[in-house]
Amino acid sequence: MCGIVGYIGEENSKDILLNGLEKLEYRGYDSAGIAVLNDAGMNVFKVKGRIAALRDQVDDEVQATMGIGHTRWATHGEPSVDNAHPHQSLSERFTLVHNGVIENYYEIRDEYLKNMDLKSETDTEIVVQLIEQLYEEVHDVQQAFRQALSLLKGSYAIALVDNENSDMIYVAKNKSPLLVGLGDGFNVVASDAMATLKETDRYVEIEDKEIVLVKRDQVQIQKLDGTTVERESYVAEIDAADTEKGTYPHFMLKEIDEQPLVIRKIIQEYQDSDDTIKLDEDIRKAMKKADRIYIIAAGTSYHAGLVGKQFIEKLANIPVEVHIASEFSYNMPLLSEKPLFIYISQSGETADSRSVLVQTKQLGHPALTVTNVPGSTLSREADYTLHLHAGPEIAVASTKAYTAQIAVLAILAVDTARAKGVELAFDPLQELGIVASAMESLTDQKESFEVIAKDMFETTRNAFFIGRGMDYFVVQEAALKLKEISYIQAEGFAGGELKHGTIALIEDGTPVIAISTQDNVNLSIRGNVQEVAARGANACVVSMKGLEKDDDSFVLPQVHELLTPLVSVIPMQLLAYYAALHRDCDVDKPRNLAKSVTVE
Ligand code: F6R
Predict the structure, then answer these.
(1) What ligand 1 atom has the least distance to the C-alpha of 595?
(2) Which of 55, 285, 317, 425 is surrounded by the fewest CB atoms within 10 Å?
(3) 2 counts as catalytic
């Protein structure tokens, strides 16, 4: 989604801004721009399209030691140069970039900016025009900025530059992520630390409704009422090398390949010296106390939650409901007496999930966030956090975060079971070791999936995935992966449900992929495959060793029955990857999608 970078120091800011924006490309965007200030004034460059095009447009000669940049993912107004950020006030004195959504922008326009000839269709332009209007009344930039912010409703991360002050970037946030990075003789601003890791690894968090005055050698945090806030900086634990593709053609392929390593890292992080599970005692207590768990998530993380429910119910005997965040937010079910909310989110920034977190916190219910980004909004605002340790996930299509979420939920479920005195034969850390090796053997056989993908998906318009039990959860994820990066219309169905309607869609050649990893439903899912094959489907079965039949397309190495999703999803990720590749799609940056969905 939208990204912000700002720099104030001694270097030429345009290079730092462009490099930073490139690092944010993975989040998804449709236009981009930078504004840099020097003695000659403000220089604004904007394009519809990629950063490469912006690079071509930026004047090579321009030298300026401060500036702000932005990648935009359209919400108000189509992707266009006019709607791209930075936006300028009428006199062009103020220049601003913004992430988020200003909910009361019509009201502000009608009350404060009547008859003004606006240059764009964005909610952002309203903010910069409002600041200028207020400045004309109070003649003090900080005061005008503060007053403007107090009028805004909604979410925002803002960086503002005043043409008449090249020593300061004015920064503010509410609900949208924004960080200030600290350097020696310079400071940076970023909506994601990834954008500025080349410059610094030391960051200061900004809390909602705070203002930060960022100078070359000083950073001052204030509340909206002007009182100063002291806050320690922290070191971001992201290795800059993890944000590079290396020799891989795509981040997605790199991240698929990293999954065995991630599982081994999780084992290491959650294993105590005596081979027991290492987990925060407060999380253990919260899990034990809960009479019902509500898992809240979106997209792929929701699919991981469906698997997590099985672990917690089967191993720890606690009932679990899994909800799509955007639905729960507006239609809260009847809650139990002692609920615990688990928020699953790779980015920790998903606005739909955050909206539920805000509501459940207001109701006084405890919250645990399972995320890849400790320090993210969902992590900071929940009572507890479990870290996925998956390393930065750059490709928009989530792969290693999904398997990491499942692995961490398995560990959590077993820990809770043990804390409740349930005797289990299942040792998750040992079983996850077997899973890591199984994953490795699959990523070593990529060519097989490339062949299947070519056969089944090269020209098709649609595809179906079927499974039962655990496999039903994985086929939902398989369909999402395929549709989001290859644009093939794909659905994941419960095998037994086909004959209740969906089978009408099966025609000659319709691709149907079945997963069979569960002994108790192996025969029934194969029956479903026969039903679609009899109606002309191009059907294939991916089965688990021990359950295979002669003409199965692929046999997965055997792992514990509960952990099969960690293994069966790998071929599905690879099938989606190769399908997208064969159809010439932009694998890492699929159309219309953003990595971190920070608007509801
Ligand atoms: C799909 C995908 C999305 C995310 C969803 C939630 O590949 O990545 O469906 O899973 O947008 O994002 P997080 O996990 O960051 O809350």
Answers:
(1) 8
(2) 425
(3) yes
**How far apart are the C-alpha atoms of 391 and 348, rounded to whole Å?**
14
**Residue for token pair 């108000």:** 76
Range of the domain at 22: 3-241
> What is the rounded end-to-end Cα distance, in angstroms, of the chain?
12
Within 10 A of 220 (CB to CB), how many other CB atoms are there? 13
| 419 shares a domain with 334 | yes
DSSP collapsed to 3 states, 318-337: CCEEEEEHHHHCCCCCCCCC
Does the annotation count 595 as an active-site position? yes
**Amino acid at residue number 551:** D
The answer on 522 and 404 residing in a single domain is no
Catalytic residue among 48, 309, 481, 595: 595
* 515 & 554 share domain: yes
* Dist CA 12 CA 36 (whole Å): 9
Q: How far is CA 18 from the centre of its chain?
A: 22
- Given CA atoms 362, 364, 370, 371 in this order, what sign does their dihedral have? positive
- Which residue out of 300, 485, 573 has the highest number of ligand 1 atoms within 8 Å of its CB and is therefore the one to mutate? 300
**369/388 same-domain check:** yes
What CATH number is given to the structural domain containing 296? 3.40.50.10490
* Strand-pair partners of 502: none
Spatial distance between the Cα atoms of 323 and 342, rounded to a whole number of angstroms: 10
pLDDT, tens digit (0-9, with 9 covering 90-100), for 309-323: 999 999 999 999 999
pTM score, whole prediction: 0.82
